[in-house]
Amino acid sequence: MKLLSLCFICIIIITMNTAKAGTPEETQRARLQELLKTKIEIKHKFSPITLIGEVIDVWCYTSEIMGEGKGEKHKTCALACGGGGMPLGILEDKTGQVYVACKSNKAFKGCNEILLPYVAQRVKVTGYVARKGGCQALRIEKVELAKK
Fold this sequence. Notes:
By secondary structure, the protein is an alpha+beta fold. Helices cover 34% and strands 30% of the residues. The chain is elongated, with a radius of gyration of 21 Å.
């Protein structure tokens, strides 16, 4: 969320620097300067989570287009799909719930790069989860092989 604020401020600064005197842009610049003086409160809707489960290709698992879409039998397909940009996720051991891995701890990066080495394996994931509209989206801070 802080990153979102930073992006918003950058847009404001760019807008302010491109405005010409005596134009509507100049009026907008004045309004934006006032806005910068206003404290903006950012609320987040995510909570910390640690879970253990299998790294899966979300599409193949949920659609069952390639059978069960999990386990060693599906590893080659999941590697191809994840390597091609399809979303990977975690199938939690305890609940059977799927968590879509959306964001890594690197700015503007998804999770496939950090999850591909673990496809079809059990991992322990630490990060944050946001839930909305039936979706469980993960921001992964740390991933490691789960103890047996």
